Amino acid sequence: MDHHHQHHHHHQHYDGDENDYMQQEDDWDRDMLLDPAWEKQQRKTFTAWCNSHLRKAGTQIENIEEDFRDGLKLMLLLEVISGERLAKPERGKMRVHKISNVNKALNFITSKGVKLVSIGAEETSAKEGLLLWCQRKTAPYKNVNIQNFHISWKDGLGFCALIHRHRPELIDYGKLRKDDPMTNLNTAFDVAEKYLDIPKMLDAEDIVSTLRSDEKAIMTYVSCYYHAFSGKQKAETAANRICKVLAVNQENEQLMEDYEKLASDLLEWIRRTIPWLENRVPESTMQAMQQKLEDFRDYRRQHKPPKVQEKCQLEINFNTLQTKLRLSNRPAFMPSEGKMVSDISNAWGALEGAEKGYEEWLLNEIRRLERLDHLAEKFRQKAAIHEAWTEGKEAMLTQKDYETVTLSEIKALLKKHEAFESDLAAHQDRVEQIAAIAQELNELEYYDSPSVNARCQKICDQWDALGALTQKRSEALQRTEKLLETIDQLYLEFAKRAAPFNNWMEGAMEDLQDTFIVHTIEEIQGLSTAHEQFKATLPEADKERQAILGIHNEIAKIVQTYHVNMAGTNPYTTINPTEINAKWDKVRQLVPQRDQALIEEHARQQNNERLRRQFANQANVIGPWIQTKMEEIGRISIELHGTLEDQLTNLRQYEKSIVNYKPKIDQLEGDHQQIQEALIFDNKHTNYTMEHIRVGWEQLLTTIARTINEIENQILTRDAKGISQEQLSEFRASFNHFDRKRTGLMDGEDFRTCLISMGYNMGEAEFARIMSIVDPNRLGVVTFQAFIDFMSRETADTDTADQVMASFKVLAGDKNYILADELRRELPPDQADYCISRMAPYTGPDAVPGALDYMSFSTALYGESDL
Q: Which ranges form a coiled coil (predicted)?
């Protein structure tokens, strides 16, 4: 065989990377052909391969060139390989015999259609077939990947996998490691030789150490594996055929059994399931219905799908079985009674029918229960709200708080109650809603309807009760309001009438107790008249009192009759019947006391009147008498008759007659004392008061005394100045003439006129000097005595201060001072003492101890009278 031509073909149908790879392979082939090691390897492999066949004929070769030269062993090899007899070999030793035998061998090979030189495409297809067989057999081994007949076998796992695949008991494949190729290769080679009768054509070390193992050698060795295992397969095939026939029968019987079992199970499941799907009795709770829905979901998702598959499988199995029976010339399969495919289809149809609408029914039921649950919850919620609202309402409506209230409070209670009535009316809807929901729950057959109905009934009954109580309370409040309004009107009427009546009584009490001060009979009569008029009004007042008390009794009667507990008292007044009666009694008691007081006062006034008249009768006599006497004295002092001594005598007799009138004055004083003690302050019967009389009397006494004194002074003046009676009479006549007001006094102007008439000629300064002499106290008037003094000073010699001073100088022995002894020696003792006590000490240069100033004393005697 020509090894040098077997790789000259190319794989034109590959492209890209594949072409590159093929090119690489050709390059490797060239290198190997030139490699002596490669040739040695080839020899070794082929020798082993030949021996593996020749061993069956009981022989072997050592050297290819030598041992095949005579053609005998070559013919023997071909016979072993082909299993056919070749032409009888020639046994000669000659070269011609040998050539003949080799030719016979070659002819046999040619007769089998084998081309020996440049085999090309045929070899390629054999190679690809073998490669495909290797790939198919090693496919289950993950760590084996056969792609060629060189590198893919280097780790030895490919050989081990082929052995393990066909004879797993020979190799413990799990213990082999990819990184230990020597062990793997030797294991495979040893096992193949020992158990499979395949000689060791390859060397483990060569394969490991060579970069790229020889493809032909590997193919040759692998093909031994193929022959070893496919030979075994032929025997298996024969056995298989028998088994196959038996298996077909067994399988068919099994399929029939399976069909029967599957059909029975499926029909049983359908029989069990249909009633469950046809049961449309609803559950009472949402939870239970949802559980049903969940069960149905499980049925549709978990339980039914396998049954759908089972049914499908059953039909497939039935069809397959019939086909198989027909193909293997067996009679058709007839399932047992009621398990025909049509029976199963009918049963399945019934199942689907039962299932149809089940989910819809479930959902509708759930919707219904959801609605029920919602309604029930709504019912509970509304009921709870309503019950909470009604809580305490009954107690509130039955309370008797209106029995102890005022009118304003009852009005407030009514307003509050009206508000409650509105609230109640507003809640009517709620109660109706609750009843409507309960009704709907009944119609929808709610499982807990009895308790709903009971609660609803309770709410409705309570509602009716509340309505009745509300009405009852409303009536009670209105009735109480009417009563309180009536009482209020009566209270107001009582207050309106009691207040003025009370004021009238208080006024009357005040008037009756009023302390009166009257001074006349008329006044007391006026008071008595007024008192009588007041007494006349008492019957009418008593009627008013009884009317007012009647109002109060009416209130009391209402309170008693209707059991109204009045809260508080009359809001319009603090006056009460007790107070009215007490004041009325007091008025009644004060009237007779007033009567008595007026009677007593009347008697007192009559007595006073008597005292007034008594005083007046005397005063009306005494008063004019004093007046007359005053006038008479005035006349006496003006109209001068006779000598001054005669006048003096007449006046003294007149004074005596006046003094004798004193007892009458004293008697009047006694009457006046009585009047004062009786507290009488006025007297219409006389214009004379006691004070008038007293003043008049005192004036009369003073006037008469002054007039007598005046006459005495005139006598003194006349004698001292040596004024004649005629001169005095002349002065008197002049004074009287100019006493124009007839008061016994001349005013300044009259005095000036008088002086002018008497021949004086003077200016203002001179008249002022004269006035300072006659009117030293500057009263603006001139008395008759002062007039006489002035007139006599002007006409007669008079003592002067100088004359007195000269007299003292004589007594002092011509000194400028005088001593006390000198005065006592010359003057009477009282006059000497007068002078000593009045004289100032002398302070001149010639003074001696005890010297007295007689000069200043003398001047003082005629100066201002301020000694």
A: 245-272, 410-444
